[in-house]
Amino acid sequence: MGAERFHVQRAVLNTLSANYGAGLKTVDFNESENARELINLWVAAQTNDKIKDLIPTGVLNALTRLVITNAVYFKAAWMNQFETGDTAQGSFTLADGSQVEVPMMHAQRSMQAFVGEGLEAVELPYEGGMYSMLLISPAQGSLAKFEKTFDAEQLNAILGALNTASVTLSLPKFKLESSFSLSGAMKTLGMSDAFSPGIADFSGMESTRSLYISDMLHKAYVDVNEEGTEAAAATAIAVGMTSMPAESYTINFDHPFIFLIRDIQTNTILFIGRMADPR
Questions:
Q1: Tens of pLDDT, residues 144-161
Q2: 41: Cα within 13 Å, side-chain hemisphere
Q3: Are 165 and 268 in the same domain?
Q4: Mean pLDDT of the chain
Q5: Is residue 57 classed as helix, strand or coil in its secondary structure?
Q6: Is residue 214 domain-shared with residue 234, that is, in the same domain?
Q7: Are the CB atoms for 279 and 270 separated by under 8 Å?
C-alpha cells in the first residue's frame, strides 16, 4: 500500500508484477485508521481469516508513506492421517520440568525418521507429496542450546540422515498464534541502516532518500490435528513409499520441539516454529 501522491519508481512496480504477482494500491495515510483497517482486511482475506489485525492501532500515521505486506496460507491433509480414536490424553514435559496433560495423537507405520544421540526427527508428508512437516526433538531440556546452533547446514544434515523406518509415533495436537515485531531481530542480524532516518537508502524505490523502515511486524497461526495442518499453499500428485523399513523406532514428542513445513522439491521453508506448550 502506498500513500496517495507518493511516486514509486516504475522499475520497482515492474519487478513486483513480473516476479511476485504483486502491485501497488494507494491509500490516504492521513486517515491512518481507515488505511490500517483496509490493509488488515486484505491480510485476513489472503489467510482465510486466520491472521487478523496484523497492524495494531498507532503503527500508521500521516508520515507513513508505504506499507509492504505479504501473506501465505497453507492447508493440507496428511498423506496418512492419524486415527482420531487413537488420540488420548498424555503427559508433555515443559522446559521447567513440570508436566501438563494434552491430547496426544498416535500412529504406527513406515515413515522417514532419524534417531541419534540427543536428537530425534520425523518427516510427515502431506497429501500430494509436495510438502511435508519435519519435526525435530532435541533431548529434554536441550532445545534452547540446540536452537543457538541450528542453521541451514544442520537442517540439511538432518534431512540427509532420515531413513525409512517403522515408527511408533506420539505427537501432541496443537494450535498456536504468535505476534511480534521483527525490527529488533533484523537490526541484530545487521540490517540497521534501513531503520535509521537519513541513513536508509531506498533510492531504488523513490529518488528522495527520505524513506526508512519504522517497524516490521509478523503474525502467524498454525493448527496441527489428526487430519492435517492449517497455517496462515497447495496440494499436488501423491507419491508412495514402497521400500521395507530396516529400522524400528519409538518417537515421543512429549517435550519441547521444533517443527518446519517445507516444500520438498525446493527445500523452501514455509513455516518454522517452536512448540513449547501444546496447551
A1: 899 988 899 999 999 999
A2: 6
A3: yes
A4: 80
A5: coil
A6: no
A7: no
Q: How far apart are CA 25 and CA 31, in angstroms?
A: 15
- What would the pLDDT profile of 225-279 be if each residue is shown by its tens digit? 878 776 652 211 212 223 344 578 888 999 999 999 989 988 888 888 888 888 8
In this structure, the answer to whether residues 241 and 260 fall within a common structural domain is yes
Q: Domain of 26: which CATH number?
A: 3.30.497.10
Which residues fall within 8 angstroms of residue 59, CB to CB, at 6 or more apart?
36, 214, 215, 217
Note the pTM of the prediction, 2 decimals. 0.73
CA dist 13 and 25 (Å) reads 11
Residues 243 and 261 in one domain: yes
- pLDDT, tens digit (0-9, with 9 covering 90-100), for 181-215: 778 887 888 888 887 777 877 777 776 667 777 77
First to last CA, the chain: 37
Give start and end residues of each alpha helix (H) in the chain. 10-20, 32-46, 143-149, 152-161, 183-188
The answer to whether residues 196 and 160 touch, using CB atoms and an 8 Å cutoff, is: no
Residue 177 carries which side chain, given as an amino acid letter? E
Q: 185 lies in which domain range? A: 2-71+181-219
91 with 144, same domain: the answer is yes
CA distances from 117 to 121, 138, 151, 153 (A): 11, 9, 18, 18
